[in-house]
């Protein structure tokens, strides 16, 4: 996925094997990862979610980022340091490995993330 956003904020809700900002690796044949991630303080993701630190998410993928591009900054991790979200600050791209579009009814941070994304692209 090459960005041509020209300064328009972008939120990628699912990182998959087509992303060329990092090498995606098969981590597990099946199953899910822990239901919490650690959001990096003072990141755009923390700002858009209205939180930093530990939050509950619904990450249930069998792939993860093994090697992140030097252009990208990791902004959320599992407790074993698996990257669950990254940002490309220059292009205003945030990619998360969970589903805020599903969580928004039960997790305030998911609704806040979606609202702030919509507000950012509306400017």
From TrEMBL:
Coiled coil: none
Database matches in Gene3D superfamilies: 3.40.50.880
Any Pfam family the entry gives: Peptidase_C26
GO molecular function: hydrolase activity
Taxonomy, superkingdom: Bacteria
Signal peptide span: none
Protein name as catalogued: Putative peptidase C26
